[in-house]
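Aim 2 progress update. The chain analyzed this quarter is reproduced below.
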Amino acid sequence: MSSSQGEFFPESLMQEINARFHHVDRDMDGRERLFFDNAGGSFRLKAAVDAYARVDALPDCPERIHERARHLQDIQARGEADIRTILNARDGSLYPSLTASGGMFDMVRVVMENVPGTNAVTTILEHPSSYDAMVYYAERTGKALRVAPSNPETGGVDVDTIVGLIDDNTALLSVMYASNISGAKFDIETIVERAREKKPGLFIIVDAVQHAPHGVIDLQKTPVDGINFAPYKFFGCRGSGISWLSPRAAALPHHRLAAKQEGAWELGSPAPAQFAVVTEIVGYVTWIGQHFSDADDRRECFVQGMQRIELHERALLNALLDGHGARRGLRQLDGVDVLWDYHDLTKRDLIVGIAFANLKPTDAVREYEKRGVIVYERVASSLYSGRMLKSFNLDGAVRISPLHCHSPRDVERFLAITEELAAI
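Predicted structure tokens:
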């Protein structure tokens, strides 16, 4: 199998990977289940859940001088270092918040309120946390909001379309790393390069919540001013969002305790358990990387692990679309329409949208559940989906989002059930 079609993990490693997650094959009641809704919140690493419970059980305040407090400080320091490992961030400020959406609103606010300009640019496919923040602060600051339309063929937004909206008066570009509707990856490296050619010094914020669990992020190649991810969609736990800000963005006026440094964004007592979760995420990905690399550097092993995750997921995507074993793929099933079926799988994260000829999305999701499969209905009436779907002239879609801990056999089972639903 070529790299353009991905490469499955060896079977022995696949079994080890599967065993490191909760509820991959069965739900909490022990019922057999295929959970193909990881874009809404991924499988949890057992080590991450255990670390969170162990650390959060401690009553000690990290902001003390005794031994256990210093232990918690060390946990947070390791977690902060591992956030930088994920992003390849060598400077700037980290901002842990309750949710990644809250962090996005805060980052958009400080740029829109403090950076001169008459307009701001975003895309129609943005998650509500970034799109709505841009709308709100454009209105508050009197800036015109320019919105790049989607491309129905690729399921994404073209670089030229985004860059064409930028001029000398653009205060902020806010753009996502990958669509949580179609799975289309945005060419962030080219977008950043060309946007800054158009306006040197342009502030850029990126929503990486969807993409972070599926591919490598490198702030040295994409020097943006703000980026976020969510541990609960990255094999971790709910309850935190992680943001990073460039030195110049972190220095903009923001809510801050007066005694802290100018670029500090963390407010209140830290939650070391959330940092312990990030360390377990990075430790897991580097463990995968060490199966394919002899490198000692943690970032290098992490990158190798993410690249192998990406290859396995691309192979799963290829199997979903073109079939595996004796099963025909979604492209070959009568009564099933693969949406945003772009041929180049290197431009896609592991998300597939489909429509049934004989079932509405919500009805299809219910039929899947009856057969032990969890997927998600994207419908135009949803606040999380309507704007994006309407940009493609669609009323709805069934979103399928497996994770790298799934196997080819899981895809075969899913395809068999999908063929059954198509024949209803």
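The radius of gyration is 22 Å. The mean pLDDT is 97. These observations will guide the mutagenesis experiments scheduled for the next reporting period.
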